[in-house]
Amino acid sequence: MHNDTSQPRAVGRPGGFTLLELLVVMSIILILMGILLPCLMRAKESACELFAMQTAVDKEGKVLMRIKDPSHKKRHDDIYMIEIDTPKDCRFFIKKPYPSGMKIRRREGQDYIKWRPKWDDIGMHVITVVFQGEKVTEREIELYVFNKELLEAEREGKSSPE
């Protein structure tokens, strides 16, 4: 037998990754997830706003909202975008206390209050919207949250002669 020692033998390590290499790869993945998840959540919220029911405050300062039974509710059901008519060159905010989950949104140059009422929110809620501009003004808005049966009973009560 003849051993050829002119070429060096490749001395390799055993197959697999070291613990340090795995930790580096995992940290890179976690950094990427930390960057991407907030963007994905904003995209998800924007997509849900597309399904939102747009409603406006009537002349009396009232808004009617119908919600579904929780057993039949889908992810994008019962989201309302309440249009707020702000005076020119004015910003607004909602004065506390107000129902949980309300957020202020500005879309296509129009101001909205985004809210997804829960089953426990059935009833009337009064919120105060404060407009800040050249002068500060307040406006009370009454939010009526009904399920289907209560809303139909309310409409029948208004249409029947007294």
What does it look like?
- By secondary structure, this protein is of the alpha/beta class.
- It has 2 domains: 17-51; 54-157, Sandwich (Immunoglobulin-like).
- Helices cover 28% and strands 31% of the residues.
- The strands form 2 sheets. It has a 4-stranded mixed beta sheet with strand order 1-3-6-5.
- It is elongated.
- The N and C termini lie far apart (116 Å).
Q: Which key phrases capture this entry?
A:
alpha/beta, 2 helices, single chain, elongated, four-stranded mixed beta sheet, 162 residues, Immunoglobulin-like
The largest beta-sheet arranges its strands as 1-3-6-5
Q: Report the helical percentage.
A: 25-40%
> What is the tally of helical segments?
2
Query: What is the CATH topology descriptor of the largest domain?
Result: Immunoglobulin-like
What value does the Rg take, in angstroms? 29 Å
Which percent range describes the beta-strand content?
25-35%
Query: Which spans have pLDDT < 50 for at least 5 consecutive residues?
Result: none
In the residues, how many domains can be counted? 2
Q: Give a quick account of the main beta sheet: strands, pairing sense, barrel closure.
A: 4 strands, mixed
* Alpha-carbon distance between the two ends: 116 Å
Which CATH class of the largest domain is shown?
Mainly Beta
Q: Compute the average pLDDT.
A: 82
Coarse morphology: elongated
CATH architecture descriptor text of the largest domain = Sandwich
Helix and strand content put the structural class at alpha/beta
Query: How many strands?
Result: 8
Order of helices and strands: HEEEEEEEEH
